[in-house]
Fold these 2 entries.
Entry 1:
Amino acid sequence: MPEPYTTQRMLSLRKLTRAAAEQMRNQLKEILSAVGPLLQPKVALGDYVRGVKEPVRGADALFKEIESMYHAVASEKPFSVRRELTPPLDFSGSSVDVNPLEYSHTASVKGQSKRVTVTSPFRWVLSFAGHSLPELKTLLASTSPSNDQLHAFVLHYVTLKCQVDRQTALANIFKALRYKLSVTTQPEFGSLPLTCVSAPIFTVRPPDEVIIETTELTGSDAFEEVIDLEGLATLRDPMKDSLVELARAHGEQM
């Protein structure tokens, strides 16, 4: 039977989760420092980017994908920006950064409910520098966000998504290093594509009564998922598994 989520156990799990998340994030940032240059818009778009003179093969098709997705996302709430994408495009930041994925959850127990912001510490949202989700949230919460700023955020996220879709080798690199690339959306950002990367370690969200009790104790509306110890105990090595299967296929007993 799994141990109950007592206050002391939650403190212990949170310390372990944060230590593991820091280790995983540091490793991920090292990976991004190596593969990040592949995601610079100028690499795939060439002279569609301001300041770049050389054309790049495949840039025409990529621009059309970006243009189509941009119009679909930007024209809807919460952005409601209607403008044409006219090359050359401006990208104020080209380095890639990561921030933990957050989502809203309504915890309910015995007629009591509370809306909290939950963090998934082993799943991160990729973004170009200066265009993180926390910065976008701040912009959308402002009284009158400028269309230019909203345009820039949509353009950066759509471009990143389209580039990742086209670079299948990039997904294979992450997979070989045990990380997984995926795309998601969140209601508060409409259909804005969020490119995410996940560590091979999973987390769990404790029962709602634990969430409500914990947030009441801390006086906060924020909560963090905690490491899944059962999943950690069964963590497998894909390379080892494939090699063992290969050995068995050749008649070797492992």
Entry 2:
Amino acid sequence: MVLLQSLIIALSMYSKLPMPRIAWTPANTRHVMCFFPVVGILTGGCVWGIGTFLLEKECGVLLFASVMPLLPIIINGGIHLDGMLDTIDALASYGTKEQKLEILKDPNSGAFAVIGGGCYFIGCLGLWSEVTAQMLPVIACGYVLSRGLSGLAVVRFPSASKKGLARTFKEGTKGLHSMILLVVFILAPVGVMLCLSPGSGGLAAAGAAGTFLCYRRMAIGKFGGVTGDLAGYFLQMCELVMLACVVLERYI
């Protein structure tokens, strides 16, 4: 029952799927990060299925490239994109760690968030315009991998704040079984990606690993640890990098 409640909390928190309301307790929030990648399975499945449908119907390249970046946002409600935009504003401030953390809490968006968001979607549009049906399975697996790595970072990296959801889930997610489940959600998509396409799958996995290492350095060096907003920033950037790696493979 506790595991089911943790799954429901993860889906209600990180997706727009209708879920029954349950009270949060230390027991049922213990495995939320472990079930976070389940949202990636749902997202990847929708991206794969709808993307395949659009390509089979021979829709226009611009329409396809416009729809595909919106699917994950529709599913997750933009929670990760919000974190990315807040993080861009904080990084652009060049302030102290304390000042950056205050900017993350500010509900208003600055000019650099708008600029960064625009650049992000232009990049997505260009990359998705190069995607073929054969690339979609590898790209779909990336949505699971990014969330597995994000969950691992929340659990294992230092927290920048003593408050917030990231801190709450970090404190709750303890035990060897929790770590094993997160590692499975990292290794399983990597293995599937490599089986589907050693070339593009290997490049995407390498891109995700490189993004993860850069994220750790940035989060600890500039913020003193991770927060929910920084986790959203990593998720969006990791998925963009993996998409770029899959597209890049066709030109190598």
